[in-house]
Amino acid sequence: MEPLEERETQVAAWLKKIFGDHPIPQYEVNPRTTEILHHLSERNRVRDRDVYLVVEDLKQKASEYESEGATFSQRHGCFSVSSVPGSTIGETGKIKATDYTFEEKIGILFRLNAESISCSSEN
């Protein structure tokens, strides 16, 4: 078992991390409160690790789904975001019309419409 002083130091560091720039609320430093807070900090550390693993797993799955979607689109000719020039779609997912000439805008709209029709006719 860790010495009490070491646990107090760990608890103080954990509280600093949790509260960030905000002041840490005052608490009575004694063996019982130190033990309770140390236990909470350990559970928090384990939870953070678990959340990190879930996030990484979701990133991997998203990448796999994106790859499968691209493969499906190539095989079936359906619309894919990757088939539209990268600067066409903004962070909100909407078409950005300011970067293109009128002819380019018409071409993009025509291509989007044609791809959505080919997808809907296959269903």
TrEMBL record:
Task: Determine if Protein transport is one of this entry's keywords.
Answer: no
Biological process according to GO: cell division; spindle assembly
Q: Where in the cell is it found?
A: Cytoplasm, Cytoskeleton, Spindle
Keywords, in A-Z order: Cell cycle, Cell division, Coiled coil, Cytoplasm, Cytoskeleton, Microtubule, Mitosis
Q: Which GO terms describe its cellular component?
A: HAUS complex; microtubule; spindle
Entry's Pfam families?
HAUS1
Domain of life where this protein originates = Eukaryota
Cytoplasm recorded as keyword: yes
Q: Which family does it belong to?
A: Belongs to the HAUS1 family.
Q: What name does UniProt use for this protein?
A: HAUS augmin like complex subunit 1
What organism, scientifically named, is this protein from? Macaca mulatta (Rhesus macaque)
Q: Which gene encodes it?
A: HAUS1
